[in-house]
């Protein structure tokens, strides 16, 4: 993180790339809180000085700039937004045990789903490795079906009645899941195996706060993947 002292203003800016599973949750969280922000699309192969200066350690997106001060790491940004603009809708539960549980599942997604996603994006040309990535994603989603049952308690989202922290962290991947679904010829979140999660996916995509942020053009996502693979 860079910058010191109090935020000079309330101006919000997000540095991102549109299909990033880490940028998407931040944008939806800002929408949920009703905060307007400037979105700056980065070229990760020609990073702006603003990005490099704002995240000098990792040089990755997302970066949230709040009054010129930088906050890095998507899950930390989500928690910053939730703490600063507390109240409805809250992203994390107020009960400490439920909050710990939400953080646990978000960390699980960042470990198991992210690693499977990396394989599916970057090892596409190695069919065995790619199939292994799909299988690993499937295993993680099976586990998350149980997590959804426990966390949602029959309500529409991991967060209960509304989108919460775990919803945002998993929801960031849906654009890519749609693209991978086109390759494998079925939904990655398979309604036959994980019906609760499949219904959750439909609800998350349909939420107003996710519209225009979660990519729904699978061919555009697949074209972006080809750009990544070419580079
Ligand atoms: N743990 C980070 C991961 C962010 C990340 O990997 N961002 C990718 C884009 S999807 C990036 O900026 N990559 C640029 C690079 O690695 O040089 C977070 O949650 O914010």
From TrEMBL:
Enzyme nomenclature, EC number: 2.5.1.18
Family as reported in the entry's similarity comment: Belongs to the GST superfamily. Tau family.
A Gene Ontology molecular function term of the record: glutathione transferase activity
BP term (GO), one: glutathione metabolic process
Domain (GST N-terminal): residue spans on this chain: 10-89
One Pfam family linked to the record: GST_N
Boundaries of every GST C-terminal domain copy: 95-231
Function summary: Is involved in the conjugation of reduced glutathione to a wide number of exogenous and endogenous hydrophobic electrophiles.
Catalytic activity: RX + glutathione = an S-substituted glutathione + a halide anion + H(+)
Listed name of the protein: Glutathione S-transferase
Gene Ontology annotations for the cellular component aspect, listed alphabetically: cytoplasm
Keyword annotations from UniProtKB, A to Z: Cytoplasm, Transferase
């Amino acid at each position: 993180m860079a910058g010191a002292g109090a935020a000079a203003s309330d101006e919000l800016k997000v540095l991102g790339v549109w299909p990033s599973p880490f940028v998407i949750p931040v944008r939806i969280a800002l929408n949920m809180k009703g905060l307007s922000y400037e979105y700056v699309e980065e070229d990760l192969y020609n990073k702006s000085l603003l990005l490099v200066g704002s995240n000098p350690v990792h040089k990755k997106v997302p970066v949230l700039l709040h009054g010129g001060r930088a906050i890095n790491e998507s899950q930390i940004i989500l928690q910053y937004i939730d703490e600063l603009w507390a109240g409805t809708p809250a992203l994390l539960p107020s009960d400490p045990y439920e909050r710990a549980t939400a953080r646990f599942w978000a960390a699980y997604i960042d470990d198991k789903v992210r690693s499977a996603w990396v394989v599916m994006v970057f090892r596409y040309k190695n069919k065995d490795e790619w199939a292994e990535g799909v299988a690993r994603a499937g295993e993680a989603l099976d586990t998350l079906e149980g997590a959804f049952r426990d966390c949602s308690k029959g309500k529409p989202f991991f967060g209960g009645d509304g989108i919460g922290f775990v919803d945002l962290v998993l929801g960031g991947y849906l654009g890519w899941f749609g693209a991978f679904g086109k390759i494998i010829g079925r939904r990655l979140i398979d309604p036959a195996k994980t019906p609760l999660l499949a219904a959750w996916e439909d609800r998350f995509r349909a939420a107003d706060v996710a519209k225009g942020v979660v990519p729904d053009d699978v061919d555009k996502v697949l074209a972006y993947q080809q750009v990544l693979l070419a580079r």
